[in-house]
Amino acid sequence: MRSTRSTPRSVLIGRGILLLGAVLLLAAPWITDANGLQVAADLLTMFVLAVMWNLLAGYADIVSIGQQAFVGIGAYAFFGFGVLGGVNPFLAILLAGLTTLVAAIPSMAIVFRLRAAYLSVGTWVLAEVAMLGAGKLEAFGAGLGSSLPVSFAEYFGDTPAARSLSAYWFALGLAIVAFVATYLLMRSPTGIGLTAMRDDEEATATAGVNVMRARIICFLWTAPFLGLAGALITLQRLRVAPDLSFSIVDWTVYVIFIVVIGGVGSFEGPIIGTLVFFFIREYLQSWGVWHFIVLGAVSIGVILIEPRGLWGLLRRVIPDDLIPVSHRPPRGTDALP
Amino acid sequence: MSEPLLAVEGLTVVYGQFRALHGVDLHVDAGEIVSVIGANGAGKSSLLKAIVGYAHRAGGTIRLDGTDLRGRSTAQIVKAGIALVPEGRRLFPSLTVEENLAIGRSVGRAGEVTLQTVFDTFPMLAEKRRQPARELSGGQQQMVALGRALLANPRLLLCDEISLGLAPVIVNTLYEIIPTLAHRGIGLLIVEQDISRSLAVADRFYCLLEGSVTLTGRPAEVPRETVTRHYFGL
Amino acid sequence: MNTVGLANQIVQGILIGGLYALFASGLSISVGVMRFVNIAHGDLIVLVSFLLLALTASLHLPLPLAIAVALPIAFVGGYILQRYLFQRVLGKGILQIVLVTFGLSIIVENFLQGTFGADTERISGGGIETATLALPGGIGIGVLPLMIFVAAVVLIFALDRLLYTTQVGAHIRAVSDDVDAANLVGLSSPRIYAIAMGIVGVTVCISAAFMSVWQNFDPTSGPDRLLTAFEAVVLGGLGSLWGTLLGGIILGVAQAIGAQIDVSWQLLAGHLVFLVIFLIRPQGLFPRY
Fold first, then answer.
1. What are the tens digits of pLDDT across the range A119-159?
2. Is B25 within the bounds of a domain?
3. Which chain C residues have a beta carbon less than 8 Å from that of B56?
4. A63 contacts in chain C (CB < 8 Å)
5. Are B103 and C170 an interchain contact pair (Cβ–Cβ within 8 Å)?
6. Who contacts C143 (Cβ-Cβ below 8 Å, separation ≥6)?
7. pTM of the predicted protein model
8. DSSP C103
9. Domain range for residue A118?
10. Which domain holds residue B85?
11. ipTM above 0.85?
């Protein structure tokens, strides 16, 4: 039942901040320059990846360390259809998402036969195979990759600034669709089963088959979004290459760290995490390899101390979710031994 | 009045939101057989697990020969002289009978009970000493579980529903051993759902209902209907 | 490609399978006993390799002495890692353990890169790397790969004996059977897990010793080792040490044949063979669970 008490002030303030952020994003092309749009587009891309990883790890109990596979497949499909196949570039984008979805289906045969942590390494094996396989494709430049031909890129704008703007709109659109759609998924019967499982583990034993179906749906759900992100990245970087399109560092390691630090298993977490990522980029990049060590150490610290991340810390003072996903009042941290 | 072997005062055990035991008081003297009876969910297993240091104790004290066991791990408590025969036997399925028994020896105190003692008590186990525990029948597994606990040379033996799921003939064999252990000075705290069996062997008993002691006394002095009434909470 | 050449490559592949079995033996223990996959496993092998490099290159210790120094360090390192880090997240759900070991993997890789730089390294074995032995039929095998294979067999045999004839081994098997029962009857599962992880550290050190002489390595070599070890463990069947040896051999032969087609097929061939066998028989060759 919906609570009849009025929404607490802190929650209203939080929601107000989110709304303000959304308005700023929509107004960005008028507020900032091409450079700023580039940064914003990168952040929005990371956000999409974060939402997807969070869906799998935080709700569907699938801790993937291979999502770079889908990003790369989307990138290569976009290049393949658009550049090699001569298909309309906007259609090529959609086909990239579709191809990734199709690729996800057989990979389930591997992924869902492994349990727990073996599943995680299994996703990594698949990503390795995808990357090595891509490196064998001569048409795509094999190990060195290929650049996007200028004529192709010009479909998205005559000047670099115009292309930057197009990429930004693409990124913003994808981010909004990914976020809203995933939110709706979690409010659907499929999602409710999963959040119930996350909140109350006794439900798992009785839910049985339905949980499996929900996890499969989530796994397939993320594929097209990751593929579209891959197409977007190709547009931003203007090339495909095995080490770029399938980069575990860029599309998985960073994503995992920011979601964990932001707060896995909530919808506010990836938002906070992406903002954290922005600061990491701006201020820690100059530390070289040491910034990874700091990120890794902070992530481990977060897991040990407050597994729900920065959002979990905020949640101790804010009485309710800003983006309500579960229908029950949130559980405390006590649990059966 | 000498100190009891085991003194439990105001014991409260909590699992999350669920209170399994509320302020339980009980004691066991050396050489005494004490029964705890109660229906499913009354808190009997939580009681034994709390004594052996395995359940989260939210309040109360547990003293062994006057020494407070607060803060001690199960391994330390076993070394101090308390051994548990867990509910459902809980043997290690892939380990042989002999290996299962040897574990009891390795976690416990030095003492007179040896592997041979156990095989003398349960001759049929001797033939099966090299078989994996999973291949044994329920009754044989219970003997191994009991033997494993005895090999720790405990001063206090906790038995959690050792008759569960076993044929009466086998349970008889097991219960014949209980008094001999008491004669040797070991204190026994026996948890059972089977009222007749446990009251027949006990010096004293406690009845648990929904986490609290509702009745205590000597079996001979308390009428059976009173016991049944308190068992079911009528 | 003649038959002698192919036979040579296959024999070589079998022997290299021994190296993969060494990598995998440690993973097999942590998977079989503590039921978790240490994603940093490969990186820890590389870490010890760099330790050996530092001992031999900077302190100028002869390699056997360096190994002798590194072995107890590796044991203690594994013990501490389990006791004070992994133990805190065991049993709390896979997310925590995957994230902790993954985070550890990133930290180790970048620490090595920051400390030693990104160059590929190799430790000199004083000529043993190139020595060969001639067998009948015109097949020549490397002395070092043969040593590695023998070491793998000896190690697995030793681990088997440790598990099945010693008290420590019985305790380890008990907690891997039923950790709650073990705790209930007075075994200290955190301590036993830590000892098991110390043993894993020893296997990591032995793996590192052989790997660093036979193969090039650099700070980013860890993940490949982890994936190989993982595939060997899964192919062999979770919980079976001898199965892990067989898994390693299968991968070694697959890679050797792949390399014969083209050098760039080597890694891919191993992964593809793994996927195919896994699809046909997901429980592995000799599963215990």
1. 999 999 999 999 999 999 999 998 899 999 988 888 888 88
2. yes
3. none
4. 94-95, 98-99
5. yes
6. C128, C131, C132, C133
7. 0.90
8. H
9. 21-246
10. 6-232
11. yes
